Amino acid sequence: MQRGNMIRVLGPIDLLTASGPQTVGGRRIRAVLATLVVSAGRAVPIDSLIEVVWPRRAPRSAVNTVQSHISRLRRLMGAETIRTVDHAYLLHVAPAEVDALRFEDLLGSAMAHRDDPAQCRLECNAALDLWRGLPFGDLADDEPFRLEALRLDELRLATMELRIEADLALGHADLVVGALESAVEEHPYRERLWLLLIEAMAADGRRVEALRTCGRLRRILGDVGLEGTEALRALEDRVAAGTCG
C-alpha cells in the first residue's frame, strides 16, 4: 500500500488515504476485504470468499465477480497488497496498515508498560483513538465476522479498563468516575468496571458512595443468581477500612 494508507475495519469498512477516507465499494467487495483482513497473513481460497459473499447460493458468475473485486481492491491499495497463492488470495500488509492490527499491537505494548502508567495510558489512548464504531460496520452481525467483532470489542473494553487503571495510578480518580458510571450502565455484569468505579470513588474521597456502589453491584449480580467475587469482598473491606485510594 502507499505510505500512510490504512485499511479500517474498527467501524465502517473503508480505506484511509493521505487525502482522507475513501470508500471501498458495495457490501460484497467490503465482505471480500473484511475476510482478507480477518485472515491477514493466511491465504483465503476463492471458494471461501464466494461462500462469504453468497452464503446461500452463488451465481455462476461468482468466480469472475470475486476476481473483479480483488482487481478493484488492488487498484485502490496497490497490486502488491493482495497476492495470489494458487487458487487463494493473501492480504500482505504491515500491522500499521490495518487499524485492527495496529490496535492489537498498541494494546500489547500498553500491557507491557503496565508498570509505567504514563506510557501505558498514552498507548491505550492511541489504541482507542482508532475506533469509530462497530467492527466491520454493517457486516458486524454477519456470520463470518460476528465472532471476530465480539473479540475485538472485548479487547476494546479491556483497553479502556487498562487506561482507567493507569489514570488511577496517576492520581486522576476524579477524571474517570463519570466515564465509569456510564460504562457500568452499558455493561452491568462486567465486574471489573464496577471494581474500578468503586476504587475511583474511594480514591476521590467518596467512600460512602463507593460502599453504596458495592451494595448495588451485589443486588445486580444477585438478580441473575450470581455472587460477588473475592475481589469485590476484598475491595469492599478496604473501602470500609479507609485503606483504598
Summarize the structure in words.
There is one protein chain. By secondary structure, this protein is mostly helical. It is 59% helix and 8% strand. It contains ten helices and six strands. A three-stranded antiparallel β-sheet has the order 1-2-3, with no helix packed on it. Strand 1 and strand 2 form a beta hairpin. Helix 7 runs antiparallel to helix 8. It is elongated. The model has no long low-confidence stretch (mean pLDDT 94).
Keywords:
10 helices; single chain; mainly alpha; 245 residues
Précis, in short:
This protein is mostly helical and 245 residues long.
The backbone outline, from C-alpha atoms, is elongated
Question: What count of helical segments does DSSP give?
Answer: 10
Order of helices and strands: EEEHEHHEEHHHHHHH
Q: What is the C-alpha radius of gyration, as a whole number of Å?
A: 22 Å
Q: What is the helix content?
A: 55-70%
